[in-house]
Design brief:
2 domains; three-stranded antiparallel β-sheet; N-terminal domain of TfIIb; 8 strands
């Protein structure tokens, strides 16, 4: 995702994303849609509608949102961030950056890499391998 700003406002957690899949091909009012997904209706009014989520207005100027169309729109606008093996996510820069001068560390079966962001200098960590002990 080079030179593209990541949308952080409006991101849903895993449970909310799973509830998106259960939306029907019907029109929902913003408060009904928010209740189905598990978010506040203010998030729909303040984040999604200004971001051009598919909606329509009736003759009384009420907003109606198609459930399936909203699910597809969310999936295309808030896609999962994929990082390469040599990249880490910087929380300051809000994007994947290459890991340079990395140091591998091990602790309790966990292997992770430490490096610094080449743009802002923030300390970054990325989990490389997890080996859990089996409890018998």
């Amino acid at each position: 995702m080079p030179n593209e700003q990541i949308k952080l406002s409006g991101r849903l957690n895993g449970r909310q994303r799973n509830r998106l899949k259960s939306l029907l091909n019907m029109l929902y009012r913003p408060n009904e849609l928010a209740k189905e997904i598990g978010i506040s209706k203010h998030q729909i009014y303040r984040v999604y509608i200004p971001s051009d989520c598919p909606h329509q207005r009736d003759h009384l100027n009420h907003i109606w949102i198609n459930g399936e169309a909203f699910c597809k729109w969310y999936g295309s606008n808030y896609s999962k961030i994929r990082l390469g093996k040599t990249e880490a996510f910087c929380l300051t820069c809000k994007r994947g950056v290459p890991m340079i001068n990395l140091v591998l560390k091990k602790k309790d079966g966990l292997t992770y890499a430490l490096c610094k962001c080449p743009n802002c200098g923030r300390k970054l960590a990325k989990i490389i391998n997890q080996n859990y002990r089996q409890i018998r």
